[in-house]
């Protein structure tokens, strides 16, 4: 799905028991070792919600349900913009299957202990505040 000739990349603020899932990237080299909200690009004709469900299945091996869109959008490289949704796991245990080598569940007070990608930081702060009831 494109908006204004921009490809939407979807990210999931996966919440479980007040904790947020962080995924450490393995590629590309300039992003390897940094942490992100899992997700990926929408494909032509795909809704953002459908893309998020597909990406979480491919990257983490889980079935998930998108819940609420995090307010805002964040520019990535030229022609790409990030949209983030809160989501919950319906089935499966997250595993780093593609693009990641480690996953961590972070409590709201510890979300800043990892080196998040810059564009993910506003959504992480919003989701952490939401998870802690603020």
The residue ranges in which pLDDT falls below 50 over 5 or more consecutive positions are none
Rg, Å, rounded: 14 Å
Main sheet makeup: 9 strands, mixed
Mean pLDDT: 93
Order of helices and strands: EEEEEHEEEEH
Helix content: 10-25%
How much β-strand is present in the residues? 35-45%
**Total DSSP helices:** 2
Cα distance, first to last residue? 33 Å
Per the principal axes of the C-alpha atoms, what is the gross shape?
Answer: globular
Alpha-beta classification: alpha+beta
Q: How many strands appear in the DSSP assignment?
A: 9
Summarize this structure briefly:
With 134 residues, the protein is α+β, with helices and mostly antiparallel strands. Helices cover 18% and strands 40% of the residues. Strands 1, 2, 3, 4, 5, 6, 7, 8 and 9 form a 9-stranded mixed β-sheet that branches.
List keywords for this structure.
alpha+beta; nine-stranded mixed β-sheet; 9 strands; 18% helix; 2 helices; 134 residues
Structural description of this entry:
The chain is α+β, with helices and mostly antiparallel strands and 134 residues long. Helices cover 18% and strands 40% of the residues. Strands 1, 2, 3, 4, 5, 6, 7, 8 and 9 form a nine-stranded mixed beta sheet that branches. The longest helix is centred in the middle third of the chain and has 13 residues. The chain is globular and about 35 Å long. The relative contact order is 0.27. The model has no long low-confidence stretch (mean pLDDT 93).
Give me the secondary-structure topology.
Elements: E1 2-3, E2 6-16, E3 19-25, E4 35-36, E5 39-41, H1 48-60, E6 63-69, E7 74-75, E8 80-91, E9 100-106, H2 121-131
Parallel strand pairs: 2-8
Antiparallel strand pairs: 1-2, 2-3, 2-5, 3-4, 3-9, 6-8, 7-8
